[in-house]
Every structure is written in structure tokens, then in C-alpha cells.
Design the sequence.
């Protein structure tokens, strides 16, 4: 059988088998509670300190799905029925990774591969409606032209990420409900790039005509409608009364969403966010630092909890295109100068993985533990200030040097961690000039390539291939070290083209070893984070994303037990 056809068959078979398994698991669960309609769900999301950065999808901002994914749907999404809440194996916490057996059609009803040339045919659901938006558009059905329009607007945007859609030759509507993607060649991330990924929202052309940068014009097919945005304070979404999807609970199908209102609370002060959770002003807080957990368990013992390994890596990127960081000895020296084991123990209280980036420990088959790495890699995670000094002297810096490092002022964790890193480096003669920037300005320095020699940040893993590509391929937007190696770029291309999963995993493991050894970053531990929610939040088990940073389908399936909330003394 042709490998491409085999890939398509395998995907459909895996989805079908997983669906049967999930049905069996759900049926084995205790009798389900009857959902309740109404009320408000108030959430401090994973990114509760960061307000919406833009409302225009063509701006190619990483956070757009997080803010618009309540009303802009995608071709595919997570099959939340396969989650741990229903007895499945998937926690759905990854920032941009959906396993093959955990994907469902959202706007897509079916899809299949066609060969010679390689094409993906997507049949859309019929009867999915855009609601009326006064001054913008009348209510109408979503059609294939909307998918084509959305794709073409993304790819033609001057802000589009270079090479992101290079595997696609064209996208066309072959009839009212059929979209055909013609591929240049096989691409391992085909389902993510314009299926459930960061830049896959389907918007109507009427919104663009009215002005896509203005949130007041936005309108989509999703479970909620954006009703209010207060910069730095909140996003408010109201129930879409003509939403198409349903949730089956206890053998009965219920119309979604359950809540009347969804509110994102933007809270820049960490202590204020914990106070809001403790007093019931928040129903869910998705990102609780380990150091606050014990106090919250004492002061609000009825909270429910889940723990997850952070889906982004923390590091100090060093610009390898500038001195002194063009010298690998300097980069390796700075890694050895930082006591990473002590950071795990003291800063994170043991709640961190020493080696969790650039490959996430949850990516089975792609991830190798530090114990399996070459000695030259292990050396970078072993505190050795004496060798760090020797390497700096060999590189021509016996007295050290100083350099500017930019940091996100909106991240309480980073504002506390970067001085600790600075203290270690000072012991080997390297002095940091710390420049805190508001997140918008901080991000702009990287995207415009005007960042300083040091850049202290988190970067999402996304998925096993994208984690390496976006961070280390020549010219990539999310490449703060400006790393560039044509040989590495060729290996990356080969990994994307490899159809055999086992072979692709081997390629990725080799590339991880290589890039960690080259040390374009000071590699830092990856934290364990916590999610907390009150027991009146139903049909929820700590899920965070149903696609790339997109929680919308999760919130649509939550209901609030308002009677329980009142009995517990909260309104």
C-alpha cells in the first residue's frame, strides 16, 4: 500500500478504534450528573497576566486562538471524550499537540487523502451557522469559501511566518461544503498547520470587511460570542444561541454551551489572583505556582486540583550571531555556571524537571531523559563554575564580561528567577544588565529581531517537530538566539518529510541531542504547574487546551452547579 494512503487509512482507523474505546470507557463510568444551563464561568486562564495582544488573525499572534477560539472554530479539535475525565489517557494540557487518536472533526465532518497529486479532501458539516452581527453580517451558513478565504488571508499576510504553509500548493472549494488542499509533498504536521493549529481559525469575510482589528466586529460559528473587551481587565463572551454542537452525557445529547457567560479575568498581580480564587470570584485558575498550593489547600480546602508539567521551556537565549556568544565555549561555560539542580530544589521546591526542554517529557518516543544523553550534554546540567571560568579564559574572557538581557515584566516567575541566574553568573565574572519590558514590547523585540544579546523567556513546545523548527531553524520568528545551521535545517526538513513515525522519532531524538549540546540557550528547569477549580465546576478535570492554546471547546462543555455554589456561601 502506498505510504500516503496508508497514513490516511491509519489515521481513520485510529480515530475509529479510539472512538469505540472511548464509548466503552464512558459507558463504564458512574451515572453522569444532569447538566445545568445558565450562570457565569469566571476563569483565570493559563495566561491570566496577559491581555489579548491583537484581535486580527492575520497578525499571526501566538495567543489568538486563546482569545478568539471561543467563536472562531477550526477544521479539527481535540476529542475531549478521550480525556482522563472520561477514563481516557489524554489530559489535554499540551499547548499545541494533539495525538492522532485524540482528534475529531469540528467544522470538518469527514476527510480523506487522494493521490496523484497528493490532496486532502475535507467535507464540512452542513447547517453550521454564523449568527447575525448587527452592522457586520446577517446570519448565514458556513461554507467552503469561508475556509478558503481564511487560509488565503493567513498565507498572504505580511506577518505570516516564513515557510509555515510551504507544503500546500493551493486550497480550493470544489463545492459548497468541500475544501481541497493540494500538497506539494507529505508533511508530518499537516493536521496542525491548518486544522487545529495556532493560525487555523475560520472567519467570515464580512468581519474582515468591517475591520478585523476591531473586536466589536468579530463573529464566528463557535459556542460563544465576544461581547466585551476591557484591555488589562477582562474578555467577556456570551452564549451563542444557534451553536450547532452537542455533548452526550448519560446517553442524552445536550445543546452547547451550558453557561450563559464566560469571563476571562486578566490579573497581573499574582497575590490578587490567588485571593480571587480563594474567595470564589474565580471558578477556575488554570496556572497556580507550586509555592501557593499548600496555602490555598489550607485556606480553601474544597478546591480540586491537577498537576501538569509546563508546556513551555524556560531559558536565557544567547544571540549566537554576536560576540561573545558566537563562541560555543562561552555558551557552554554559562550553562555550567548556573546551578540548575539548586534551582529545581530551592526556586521550584522540587516541583520541576531538570531536563524538560526542547522536548517535552510527555512526547513518548520523541523524548530522551537526561540519563540517556551523551556526557557532553549531561555536562551542561552539572554545576561546575571552575570549568566555566577555564572555558571563559580560553575564549578570551578571563575577567568575564557584561551583557544586557531582556525579560518579560508581566511574568512574576521570570522577574524572580532572572536575578537568581544573574547571581550564579556573577560568580564567574559575567554580569547581567536586566531590562524588564511589558509583554507587548518584550515580544516585539524578538519578532522584529531587535532583541538584545540576552533574552530570558518561555517558549512553548507546541509539538515534537515544531518545538525544534520554530526555535532553531534559520530565520524562524521564534528563534531568539538567531541560531542558523544549514545542516540542521536539512535534518529538520527530512524529519517533516518522513512518513514512518518510528524513523521520525529517531531523527528528532538525534536533533535534540545536537541542539542541546550546541548550547544556544542557558537551559533551565521546566516547572510543574497546578490547576485549581471549585467543585461546582462540572464536566471538567483540569483540561487546558483542545487545540493550539485553544480552550474554547472545554469551556463550552462545563456547567456550573449554581445550587452547590450558593450552599457553599458563594454567589
Sequence:
Amino acid at each position: 500500500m502506498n505510504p500516503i494512503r496508508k497514513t490516511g487509512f491509519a489515521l481513520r482507523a485510529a480515530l475509529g478504534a479510539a472512538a469505540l474505546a472511548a464509548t466503552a470507557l464512558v459507558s463504564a463510568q458512574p451515572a453522569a450528573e444532569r447538566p445545568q444551563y445558565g450562570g457565569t464561568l469566571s476563569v483565570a486562564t493559563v495566561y491570566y497576566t496577559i491581555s489579548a495582544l491583537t484581535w486580527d488573525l492575520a497578525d499571526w499572534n501566538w495567543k489568538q486562538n486563546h482569545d478568539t477560539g471561543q467563536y472562531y472554530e477550526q477544521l479539527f479539535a481535540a476529542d475531549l471524550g478521550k480525556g482522563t475525565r472520561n477514563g481516557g489517557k489524554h489530559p489535554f494540557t499540551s499547548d499545541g499537540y494533539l495525538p492522532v487518536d485524540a482528534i475529531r472533526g469540528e467544522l470538518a465532518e469527514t476527510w480523506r487523502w487522494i493521490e496523484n497529486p497528493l490532496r486532502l479532501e475535507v467535507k464540512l458539516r452542513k447547517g453550521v451557522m454564523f449568527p447575525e452581527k448587527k452592522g457586520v453580517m446577517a446570519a448565514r451558513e458556513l461554507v467552503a469559501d469561508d475556509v478558503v478565504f481564511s487560509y488565503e488571508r493567513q498565507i498572504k499576510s505580511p506577518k505570516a511566518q516564513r515557510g509555515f504553509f510551504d507544503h500546500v500548493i493551493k486550497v480550493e472549494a470544489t463545492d459548497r461544503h468541500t475544501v481541497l488542499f493540494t500538497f506539494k509533498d507529505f508533511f508530518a504536521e499537516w493536521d496542525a498547520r491548518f486544522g487545529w493549529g495556532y493560525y487555523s481559525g475560520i472567519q467570515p469575510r464580512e468581519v474582515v470587511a468591517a475591520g478585523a482589528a476591531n473586536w466589536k466586529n468579530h463573529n464566528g460559528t463557535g459556542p460563544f460570542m465576544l461581547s466585551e473587551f476591557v484591555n488589562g481587565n477582562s474578555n467577556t463572551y456570551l452564549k451563542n444561541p444557534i451553536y450547532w454542537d452537542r455533548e452526550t452525557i448519560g446517553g442524552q445529547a445536550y445543546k452547547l454551551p451550558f453557561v450563559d457567560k464566560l469571563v476571562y479575568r486578566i490579573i497581573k498581580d499574582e497575590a490578587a489572583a490567588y485571593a480571587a480564587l480563594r474567595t470564589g470570584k474565580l471558578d477556575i485558575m488554570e496556572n497556580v505556582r507550586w509555592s501557593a498550593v499548600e496555602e490555598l489547600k489550607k485556606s480553601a480546602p474544597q478546591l480540586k486540583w491537577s498537576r501538569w508539567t509546563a508546556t513551555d521551556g524556560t531559558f536565557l537565549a544567547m544571540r549566537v550571531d554576536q560576540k561573545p556568544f558566537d563562541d560555543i565555549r562561552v555558551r557552554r561555560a554559562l550553562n555550567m555556571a548556573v546551578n540548575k539542580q539548586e534551582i529545581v530544589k530551592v526556586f521550584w521546591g522540587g516541583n520541576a524537571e531538570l531536563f524538560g526542554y526542547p522536548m517535552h517529557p510527555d512526547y513518548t518516543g520523541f523524548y530522551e531523559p537526561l540519563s540517556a544523553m551523551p556526557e557532553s550534554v549531561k555536562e551542561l546540567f552539572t554545576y561546575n563554575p571552575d570549568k566555566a571560568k577555564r572555558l571563559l579564559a580560553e575564549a578570551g574572557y578571563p575577567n568575564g564580561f557584561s551583557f544586557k538581557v531582556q525579560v518579560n515584566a508581566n511574568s512574576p516567575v521570570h522577574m524572580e528567577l532572572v536575578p537568581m541566574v544573574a547571581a550564579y553568573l556573577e560568580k564567574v565574572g559575567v554580569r547581567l544588565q536586566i531590562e524588564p519590558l511589558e509583554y507587548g514590547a518584550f515580544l516585539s523585540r524578538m519578532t522584529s529581531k531587535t532583541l538584545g544579546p540576552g533574552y530570558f523567556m518561555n517558549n512553548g513546545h507546541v509539538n515534537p517537530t515544531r518545538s525544534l523548527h520554530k526555535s532553531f531553524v534559520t530565520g524562524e520568528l521564534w528563534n531568539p538566539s538567531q541560531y542558523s545551521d544549514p545542516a540542521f535545517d536539512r535534518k529538520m526538513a527530512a524529519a517533516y518529510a518522513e512518513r514512518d513515525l518510528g524513523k521520525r522519532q529517531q531523527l528528532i531524538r538525534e536533533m535534540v541531542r545536537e541542539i542541546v549540546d550546541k548550547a544556544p540557550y542557558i537551559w533551565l528547569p521546566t516547572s510543574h504547574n497546578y490547576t485549581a477549580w471549585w467543585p461546582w465546576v462540572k464536566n471538567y478535570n483540569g483540561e487546558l487546551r483542545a487545540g493550539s492554546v485553544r480552550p474554547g471547546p472545554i469551556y463550552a462543555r462545563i456547567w456550573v452547579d449554581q445550587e452547590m455554589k450558593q450552599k457553599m456561601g458563594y454567589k
About this structure: Residues 3-27 form the longest helix (25 residues).
